[in-house]
Amino acid sequence: MVSRVLKTSLHIVTKFRSGGPILYLIIQFMVLLAFLIWWDAGGRPSLSFLHRSSKQSQDIEDIASDQDPEVIRETQNVEKSPDSALRVLHLSKSFGSNRAVDNVSFSIQQGECFALLGPNVS
Question: How many CA atoms lie within 13 A of 97 on its CB side?
């Protein structure tokens, strides 16, 4: 009877020795997976104390006064063309604090071939 209890307790200790690191790895995996999901969903720590914000709010009139007259004329043409196959008005896109596209307007007519190239031609 004593030997049976001793064997059972020895068996439990043996399982715990190999199961401890596995349990640790499972917990570590779950924590890192939760962090990855949080980061991918847009949760970013605020590091505003590391860099100064250079954002300045501008009114639409200020933006319009800074633009080239040719750009203003094209924007007005796009706003007045209802028969376009595709019409994009005042498109802006930011990635965090970096503004990639600022107030872009264009239209594409039916049967027209259109390519929009960036500074690296991609």
Answer: 10
